[in-house]
Structure formats: C-alpha cells, structure tokens
Structure prediction request, 180 residues.
Amino acid sequence: AQALLPIRLVLGDAYWALGKRDRALEPYQRLLSAHVNLSLDEACAVRLQAAFGGSDRLQPYFTGEMSDTDRVQFLRTTLKQGKNDTIAWYLLGRELIPKEKYQDAIGAFSEVKRMDLGVLEFLRQRRIGFLYFKLGEFQKAKIHFWRSLNDISNEAYIIETEEWLKRCDWMEEHATKPNL
Prediction:
C-alpha cells in the first residue's frame, strides 16, 4: 500500500483538471500526511496552497503540459494579475534555479514573507541558503539555513541542513568561491 501512495498526487491532479477541486483535497492531504519524502511533501503542499488558497488561477501550471519557458511566462503573467500571490512567487523562484538565474530566484523567494505550510517555508529558506552558497555569500546562506530549521522537525532534514551550515563555515575559512 505504501508503494501506491504517490499515485494520490496524480489522482488529485486529475480531479483538479476535471474541475473537481474538492475531490482533489483528500488525495493531496493523505499523501502529505504520509511524509513519503520531501519531494512529494512539497508537491502536495504547493498544490494544496494553490488549489485551496482561494483561487484556481494556477491550475494550468499543475494540470496542463507546459515547457519550462512557458511555465516561467505563465507564472510571470499570473503575478502581474495579483502581485501578492505567495505560491506563484515560490514556484517562480523554484523554476529559475535550474536556469541558473540565482539572483532572480532569490528575488522571487524574497517576495514571500512566509509560506503558510511549514514544509514550504523550510524549503524556501533552504533554497535561498543554497542560492547564496552558490553565489559565495556564505554568511547570508547560513542565516537562511538557520531559519529553515524553525519549520521542520524531521531529524534527517535537520541533519542535512546542519551539514550545509558546516559547509558554509568551511567555505568561509578555506575558499573564496564555491566549487560544486
């Protein structure tokens, strides 16, 4: 039964695509509460916040097929319509990381005061920390890695984040630029 849990994400997306947002709630919540892994927790949490945050305007982002470029453009257009859209800023920041637009990603994540769900706030802070690390700004990275620890209780994620803090200390002492 545990192996079938990720199917709940697809099921929730299917309900949402059919306009049955209320039916999508249960599969997303159930998968999130199982804490299978951090990626699935994030996938469910962003969908819950997008679908049940009072607007369906992000539904095409999750249920439609878009290229990377189209997703970024869709999010930018959405943000022009409603600048205080926390989840759209979060998603835009996430989309910009693989494109190596680190400063833009930090800017997008920084538009968010705080995410409603703890797992998303943990990931937002940790991603900002990672981005500052990539840019060689280790003190700023440490601040965000420390902040991320306020929103997570999973021991494995805490240990992983503490390792990033140690990397920052080491890089401050021994290197001028990160070499990942």
The radius of gyration is 17 Å. The first helix runs from residue 7 to 17. The mean pLDDT is 91. Residues 67 and 73 are 10 Å apart (CA to CA).
